[in-house]
Design a protein that fits this description.
Number of strands: 11
Number of helices: 3
Strand content: 25-35%
CATH class: Alpha Beta
Radius of gyration: 16 Å
CATH topology: Trna Endonuclease, Chain: A, domain 1
CATH architecture: 3-Layer(aba) Sandwich
Largest sheet: 5 strands, mixed
Number of domains: 1
Distance between the termini: 37 Å
Order of helices and strands: HEEEEEEEEEEHEH
Length: about 150
């Protein structure tokens, strides 16, 4: 019997599958023990996609007061007890459960998590902490995903 938690995760994988199919991309789910969740055939290339979810936007930094989508991107498994290997997959499909938003991002081993925010003009004024360039949701659109493959 499949756990309720696993069924919920699978629902978000199906949301990504649906998004890809609506853009006329052939795609398939993989078995649960595979490092990635979906394989997509894009322009005769097989692209491996790992689905990551976040329940809703959160405020990660109290000083900024800006809500972000926050995703843990380096760890896998029920208790995040496993690290992804180099080249384990090609892209993330980042899903925000609250608003069913899907963002596509190239897989990188350089970070443990990512915070993505909506483009907001007053955020730039508040964000003077000396951190590296911020990530915005419009940088991870489906169109940019397809153009980068």
């Amino acid at each position: 019997m499949i756990s309720k938690e696993l069924q919920i995760w699978r629902a978000w994988e199906y949301l990504v599958l649906s998004d890809l199919l609506q853009h006329w991309i052939q795609c398939y789910e993989t078995a649960q023990w595979v490092e990635y969740d979906i394989v997509a055939d894009i322009d005769w290339k097989l692209v491996r996609i790992q689905v990551k979810t976040t329940s809703k936007m959160v405020i990660r930094w109290k000083k900024s007061k800006t809500p972000v989508y926050h995703f843990h991107t380096k760890r896998a498994g029920k208790w995040w007890n496993r690290l992804y290997k180099d080249n384990a997959f090609d892209y993330y499909a980042l899903v925000c459960i609250e608003d069913k938003k899907i963002m596509y991002m190239k897989f990188e081993q350089d970070f443990n998590s990512i915070s993505i925010r909506p483009r907001d003009s007053d955020f730039i004024e508040r964000w003077n902490f000396g951190f590296k360039k911020s990530s915005y949701d419009d940088e991870y659109t489906f169109e940019k995903f397809i153009n980068n493959i």
